[in-house]
UniProtKB/TrEMBL annotation:
GO molecular function terms noted in the UniProt entry: 5-amino-6-(5-phosphoribosylamino)uracil reductase activity
Organism expressing this protein natively: Paenarthrobacter aurescens (strain TC1)
SUPFAM superfamilies linked: Dihydrofolate reductase-like
InterPro entries recorded: DHFR-like_dom_sf, RibDG_C, Riboflavin_Biosynth_HTPR
Gene3D superfamilies: Dihydrofolate Reductase, subunit A (3.40.430.10)
Pfam families, per the entry: RibD_C
Name of the protein in question: Riboflavin biosynthesis protein RibD
UniProt superkingdom: Bacteria
Residue ranges occupied by any Bacterial bifunctional deaminase-reductase C-terminal domain in the UniProt entry: 4-187
GO-annotated biological processes: riboflavin biosynthetic process
Length: 201
């Protein structure tokens, strides 16, 4: 079965973006970039990957799910289909596909229950599903997350959008798969959901 992977940059104080959704404080230069771009090339916006000459392998993700606010970050610069190489699912209770400029066959805006949608996606053949953000959607999908990949950056935001928004979900245990510290100060840690048979308690 396909995995739902929450792959995201996060500050030392637990924010994935500033109060207005800004994320320009995260370092985009340093020795961590080559490593993350090699493994997670599928998670780079299409136009940026093309401009940088980064080849997408298609072996990590073939689908991305995100909330409307995460999707809308690119609209002011004309990025109406940020991940054209992936199947894109945008969740919103108030927006529809009529709010998306242009026509994008591989982008769907839906008010369906995110859990039901993700469970349906998991049952289909394909690569992993990338949970792009934001914190509210991550909280809704907390029980469906199979893998966490956190790019912890050596910055403090003070306020903003948390990794998980306050909410109610069952406590979940994860096993550390790997942690790599880079000279840039960025630490990439990967965790897999602990299966019941692995839980010593």
């Amino acid at each position: 079965m396909r995995e739902l992977v929450y792959y995201v940059a996060v500050s030392l104080d637990g924010y994935i973006a500033g109060p207005g959704g800004e994320f320009d404080a995260f370092p985009v230069e340093g020795d961590h970039m080559a490593a993350q771009n090699e493994r997670f090339s599928d998670a780079i916006p299409t136009v940026i990957a093309d401009a940088m000459g980064i080849k997408r392998t298609g072996t990590m993700f073939d689908t991305v799910v995100m909330g409307w606010n995460t999707y809308a970050v690119g609209l002011p610069v004309g990025m109406t289909s940020p991940y054209q190489h992936l199947k894109q699912v945008v969740f919103s209770r108030t927006r529809t596909e009529s709010d998306v400029p242009g026509e994008h066959p591989n982008l769907k805006v839906t008010d369906e229950d995110p859990v039901e949608v993700v469970r349906r996606l998991k049952s289909e053949p394909g690569q992993s599903i990338w949970l792009c953000g934001g914190g509210q959607l991550a909280t809704q999908l907390a029980g469906e997350i199979d893998r966490l990949v956190l790019k912890r950056s050596p910055v403090l935001f003070g306020d903003g959008i948390p990794l998980f928004a306050p909410g109610t979900y069952q406590p979940s245990a994860f096993n550390e798969v790997s942690t790599t510290a880079f000279g840039s100060g960025v630490v990439i840690s990967e965790y897999a959901r602990r299966q019941l048979s692995q839980d010593p308690n």
